[in-house]
Amino acid sequence: MRKILAIATAVVADAIRRKVVWVVLVFAVFLGMSIPALPSYGVGVAASVFREVAIALIYSAALVVALALSATRIPTEVERRTVFNVVSRDVRRWQYVAGNWLGMFIVLGGVIALCTVATIAIGYFTMPGGEIMWRLLEAAFAVWLEAGVIMALAVMLSCSFGVITAVVGALAFTFVGHAVVTLLGLPEGVRVPWYFPSLDIFNVINPVALGTGYGPMYALSMVLAFCAWVALLLLGGSVLFGSRDL
Amino acid sequence: MAVSPESRISGREEPAPAILVEHARKDYGREAGGRREAVADVSISVSRGAIHGLLGPNGSGKTTTLKMLLGLVRPSAGRFEILGVSASAAGARARLGFLPEQPYFPSQLTAGEAMSLYGRLTGLRRSALAEQTADLLDRVGLDGRQKTLLSKFSRGMLQRLGLASALLGSPEVLVLDEPASGLDPVGQRDIRNLMLELKAQGVTILLSSHQLSEVETVSDEVTILNSGRVAARGHIDDLLNVAGETSIAARGAGELPVDVAGLVREVALHGSTSVFSVADEHVRRVVDLLDDGGWKLVSVSPKRDSLEDYFARLVSDSTQADNASEDEDAKGGDDR
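The joint structure predicted for all components is written out below.
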């Protein structure tokens, strides 16, 4: 675990000095400030509209950062040969893959936390009555978990393929993962095969936008689904990276 | 302690070599022109505490052999051991330091952060890491650069940092791939001195380099690769000393005595000094003749090739032999 943490720490130190993370963050805050200007805002459902748009904003920022970091990290390290200094030591390839993912997941958590705090603050200052929308933290947690899974898939693909393949693959996975319930709506009586990839468990827009939130058991089921997905995808990434000549 | 197979038979407990590579082979599958064999058959044994030079022209398989040893490339065949333990076993590379050719680092880290990363991967604890980082950066001439971003480092500074990171954890075995690359003459001298210092401390070094003078100065043994095979190997004196010949260096103002000309095989001029290559049985006679002719004797020593001459000759002979063999094969194929 020490080696994984050492790699993750270096990834965090490297990532927070990269411009892409800060550009996305500034852009997200800027967009957050424009939410009160939306046409449907202020017709009695202001709070739920605000929360729904804020979640979409946090999700978009998370997705951009997740893809920008995870699809490029390992291919760049291999191309620049910085990977030699790590894997030539007493470090297993799976530790390298896991350490990289963990570092990026931590950075992603930071970006999502800052975006969420910013949108809560914008809501507080622009909403009538100055409501603090704590429920957005619940949504941010779900977004963080889902983006972590997408990140793990991009890492897995980037262990063997190039950046473009990893980005396209991760976007396709995101689309398919939400296709059945969120995008198409599950028709009556139709059951999805167990192996069909679904990310719908992380979709908490409705309970958060309506202000009801989700309970601890649902949070636990999200965490379990997240762990299963990440373990599976990082295992695949480790196998692909382990069989690769550097 | 692991022992070599020979010592098991003889009953003596000799330590296994620091690095053992046996019949390494690497081919990269089918390419446009057929299967590409980067390494055909390479065996290297590096004695503990020695500096072993690994030489070869570009594309001879040096870097691929090192990469297979270090687990960066999967070998097609062969056995790789570090201090008697299989190189692929967990913990095998814990006692090894590696400096890649042109080391690259994450550019957004500082020198201190990079050393911290590699030190922690080597298994160093916090206090030892801080101590070693300061000591090693000072040793390679990067004192006071701990907080400098690596994107601000020059090529030579990155090379020095690479060496410092390879020395983290006080490894017993060092693999250096072109350590003097990108360094100025003073930096090259520093690296040479550092290697000799480490050798004196008992560290084993496998040195891959194109700088033949550097290899000749520091190495005890060399292995020369060509076309993915071992073209020559042995103790550097055994390879470079020319059997049966002696070099006589002398300075003279007058004509060369006539009798000397008939006994000398070759004369080379180094400034005002003439170096005569003489068969061992004629040494005393030539020395007497030069002395009688008023020449001042500078030195008498066994004749020794420079590593550069030896290397150039060997690679040329080896390449010609390969080409002849390929021609034979092609001819045989046509006949069939």
